[in-house]
Give the backbone structure.
Amino acid sequence: MKNERVITNEINSINNTLDLEKKNNCLACKNEKIISRDTIVTGFLSERIFGITDGSLIPVKIYYCTNCGFTSYDRRLSENEEKKLYSGYRSEEYQLMRQKYEEFYTKDFNYLLGHDEKGLQSRESLLSDILIKHIHNHIYNGLDYGGDLGQRYPKNFPIDNKYVYDISGVKPLEGIISLASYDMAKTIDFDFIMCNHTLEHIADLDSFVELVKGLGNINTWFYFEVPFDSPFYPWSPEKRIRNQFTLQLQRMKRYLYLRLEKVVTILAKRGHYFCQMHEHVNFFTPNAVKELLERHDFKIYYNEVNITDGNLGKVRLISILCKLNQ
Ligand SMILES: [Zn+2]
């Protein structure tokens, strides 16, 4: 068990990193008009990434851009910290650790997240409709960047060779070709590249967009999909408040005997508990994704908010179809 001094030193070192890495400009549009709120890292992330198990709080700031609506945290995870979070993603060990802090995150819930057939079908038909409507050339080679098993390929839109590049190294579905490395992906001429529900997890957005862009050319169609959700948006507050309140309540319950004064003080003074830093470190608006991609030389052809329906409920998402500027 770590003693208090060790924990304090670790927290201080986290705070130092935080100051060094503080970004004062919006990461999507580079605007300087941002407002911030104090918040904390969730208990689950604190343990999984920083090994904190005694309830110590890691303070961070959440930023909201008044120009494009992009929301993010000042504490950006390093590559090594992202690896700690995402290696063995949704494994039994991941699920058990998460359930310690989030009681709703049961084994069944964890399984459903990756096997929601109704949700997958809904997203598939949405993607098919968008691609059929906008893409009129033949697609020989398609790539799903970070695409897990390749389950997001639409059935009604013909693509000759379906590739997947994903660091998880899992065996893809039948008919999907797995690419083991980025260099291997570089050898193929892709007509279509999609990247679904990844941007919201990425610390260094500019580098990541450049990586995805680096696998295409001026004829390649790019499709990005991200959730349309943020602590600062006015819709669906009930679900978010419920989730965040549950997170905080369970955390308080767990550490009540240790940290009562500190937790209550922070809750009372800052009212920050709707914004805790979890796996989603970026929250987009259609305008924010547009600003981000346009800064990287993309031309947007389709940029809409759509709603899909699954066993876990309705999801608002932003779908963007784009190409590199000619
Ligand atoms: Zn912005």
User: Anything to note?
Assistant: The first strand starts at residue 34 and ends at 40. The radius of gyration is 20 Å. Confidence is low (pLDDT under 50) at residues 1-22. The pocket of zinc ion is lined by residues 26, 28-29, 31, 65, 67-68, 70, 288, 291 (CB under 6 Å).
